[in-house]
Specification:
By secondary structure, this protein is of the alpha/beta class. The chain has one domain: Collagenase (Catalytic Domain). It has three helices and six strands. Helix 1 crosses helix 2. The longest helix is centred in the N-terminal third of the chain and has 23 residues. The structure holds zinc ion (ZN).
Length: about 190
């Protein structure tokens, strides 16, 4: 049921950014206790699982508006279903890093699917080195789309910067900037 809207985060220009649907419309969840499930944890690897969980935790802490609960793997009833796709060897310039698809009915979000690409190190390696405690920019960016944020920030130091038009990695980002927190509060507060 509902329509799907797709948001993609890319590093540098790949062509047109995919924003399907009316981006002026406010879309939002009608509940604040949200669940997430990894479709297949073994395809994500421990580092990505940790980064995704930290992304939800950071959004919860900085906005104070949501509870995010992880539920069992592969549960398609989850509000957020998380996929990992390692067909791209690692995140770098010119490749997509994440894709959020939103299923909505009218202005209400029904469910969100997020794909993270190019997880490094590949989960098949079974190793943990390479995990970092960097701020999980891509993960937070995609979850923010999944909360109904559509318009990117013009601030290159924002986690919600439109990376289609410039660099993302290398910027000093260690929190969700106030502009974005305020936008979420405007929608849900
Ligand atoms: Zn985006």
């Amino acid at each position: 049921m509902g329509n799907w809207e797709i948001f993609i985060i890319v590093v540098l220009v790949l062509g047109a950014i995919l924003v399907i649907g009316n981006s002026q419309e406010t879309i939002k969840w009608d509940h604040s206790n949200l669940t997430y499930s990894f479709e297949n944890k073994s395809s994500c690897g421990k580092c990505e699982i940790s980064d995704v969980s930290r992304a939800f935790y950071i959004i919860k802490n900085q906005t104070g508006l949501f509870n995010f609960e992880e539920i069992e793997e592969g549960n398609e009833d989850a509000d957020f279903l998380i996929f990992c796709n390692n067909s791209i060897p690692k995140r770098k310039k010119d490749i997509p890093a994440g894709l959020a698809s939103i299923n909505k009915s009218g202005s209400t979000i029904n469910s969100v699917k997020i794909i993270f690409y190019g997880i490094n190190p590949p989960p098949s390696s079974g190793v943990l080195f390479g995990c970092s405690d960097d701020f999980p920019i891509v993960e937070i960016h995609e979850v923010l789309h999944g909360l109904g944020l559509v318009e990117h920030s013009n601030n290159p130091k924002s986690v919600f910067y439109n990376v289609d038009s410039g660099p993302l990695y290398g910027e000093e980002i260690d929190e969700i900037d106030e502009e974005i927190v305020e936008r979420i509060v405007e929608i849900y507060g």
